[in-house]
Design brief:
The protein has 335 residues and is an all-beta fold. Helices cover 0% and strands 46% of the residues. It has three domains: 78 residues, Sandwich (Immunoglobulin-like); 79 residues, Immunoglobulins (Immunoglobulin-like), CATH 2.60.40; 100 residues, Sandwich (Immunoglobulin-like). It contains no helices and 27 strands. The chain has a four-stranded antiparallel β-sheet with strand order 4-6-9-8, with no helix packed on it. The radius of gyration is 40 Å and the shape is elongated. The termini are far apart.
Amino acid sequence: MVFCMSEPLCRGRPQLQCWIQGEQKVDIAVTVGSSTAFYTTAASNITITPGVAFARTYTLGGGTAPYVATSSFPSVATVSISGNQMTITGVQISTTAATITIRDAAGATLTTSVTVGTVPLTMNPIELKAPIGVIFRSVITGGTPPYHTVILDNCATNVHIVQGNILEATTALACEGAVITVVDANNQTVAVKFTVTAGTVGLQVAPSALTIPESPNTPDLSLLVYGANGPLQVFTTNTGVLAPQTPIKNADGTYTIVLTGGNTCYSGSGVDNTNPPNGTFTDLKGIPTLLIQPIDDVPPRPTIAITITVLDSTGRQGTSVLNVKDNGLGGVGCL
């Protein structure tokens, strides 16, 4: 004769205690399941692209938790479970499908066949024409990262992949029909064809022109250079006024050139020899009369123009013209 009684629920698994013929005690664990059949949102056949970035996550439900899953070919696709979320990750392209087997705690089983493939490797643009010294970029899509480059000539320099999927290079020498090949992790390839013309594109120096009044206390000024390939050389037509300092490369690839401020006064103020002065600086001796105008006025000296020239490593150059203007105060404010 068998007599049983139920123990209180413990961790979701109630227990029966049974006695056989009133002497032998047997504990029987009882698993409490769901009234919903075990299911997954994954289709019975799926195709994924290899790489963590392309992993897919599906929901598990019903049946009896916890759930476990295994892959028949972990070298092709792996599977992991966190709670009721199942993530399948493609490892490498294979003609053999991996079978993902999912089980609940009660032994119910589901399967999903996983094929690991890829989308074609492409780039945009795939052809370009540019002068020497231009930085060009082409966006990579498809394939399987990471990507790397193969280049067989020296028509371009500084060829590399930025932000994971952008080919960047700088045209260096004039040539036609040059090719940069991009290769993905599964050895798919795509080529960018480019022609480099003999001309060079000028550097952009900002501001390209600036006028300031003469002053004994002119502050430091800054020029910003865009699209340059360092190192840079900087030249000036006046080393004594607003002399350029060593260029500093910024995080965004531009360069800053600081022009040293200080005394920008010059002996260019006009002299009004009219008696009394009339402020025109244009009267000549005897005009309007000899007594009033014994000698000619001295007109103000024209604005001084200082040209800053920037030359990069590829021979491209840009300029900025700084005009130091007479302050019009007849010497007041300048030493």
